[in-house]
Structure formats: structure tokens, C-alpha cells
Amino acid sequence: MLYNFLVLSLIIVTIWLIVLTIIFWKMLSHYNKLTKGLTDQSFKSVLDKLMKDIDASKKDSDYLKAYCDRMQKDGLFHIQRVGLMRFNPFKDTGGDQSFILSLCDANNTGVVMSSLYSRSGTRWYTKRVLNGRGVEHELSDEERRVLNEAAKELRTKN
After folding, report:
1. In angstroms, rounded to a whole number, what is the distance separating the alpha carbons of residues 85 and 97?
2. Which of 62, 83, 68, 76 is nearest to 148 (CA)?
3. What's the pLDDT tens digit per position in 49-65?
4. Per-domain residue ranges of the chain
């Protein structure tokens, strides 16, 4: 009985040593892969350098995210809705020489320029636009249509 117990204990200890040897061998091979090509550097110094690089990368990533957010917010104020309509306001002149041009940002704020061409000359009119409405002067139906078409065109592109 004692002999069976000793044999069983010896088998269990042997299996345990084999398992520990395999685990140790895997850890050692992984360690050797990590430190491959290193000369007089310790593993701790390599890990410290990696941690510093990770921290620097995180700071750079945070900076770039904030920069992109700021650029996107600033981009809303750039001209991005451009509308153009050519027309003939007078029946006695030929061709569509008159036009309405709208230049607005994402908030539909900007300017609308109208040019009326006649035989006696060309007249230019400008109106400031704030949130799709004329500021000092009411927008004509054609000017509102140009603003709306520019907004639709921008939505279809996005």
C-alpha cells in the first residue's frame, strides 16, 4: 500500500514537473523572441521604452482627435453650399445672361448675389443671408430656390 502511494506520488510529481517545464519553456521562448537582437539592454528597459512609446502615441492620438474635431467644427463656417441659377428676366434680351449665385456655409449663412442683364447694362445686387433668410432685405423666390438647391446638392454628396 505504501509502495502504491509512493509510485502514485512520484507519477503526480513527474507530471507536475513536465507541465511546469512546458510552461517555463514557452515563457522562455516568448522572452527570447521579445529580446531578439538586443544586446546589453535588460528586459525591464525594453518594457519601459515600449510603455513610453505607448504613452507618446496616446498623447499624439488625443491631440490629433482634438485637432480633427476643431477642424470639423471650423469647417462648418467655410463656404460649402454654392448655388447658381441662370435665367432671362426680360423677354426682349436673348439668352440666360442673368444669374443668381449663393455662397453659404453649413448653417446657410453667407451671401446671395444677383445679376440682371439688360441691353442698357448689367445691375448687381447682393444680400446677406443668415440661417437661410435675408438679413436686411427679403429674399426673392428665385434666391430662396437657389439656396434650397445648394443645400440639397450638398446633402446628396454627403
Report:
1. 10
2. 83
3. 889 999 999 999 999 99
4. 81-157
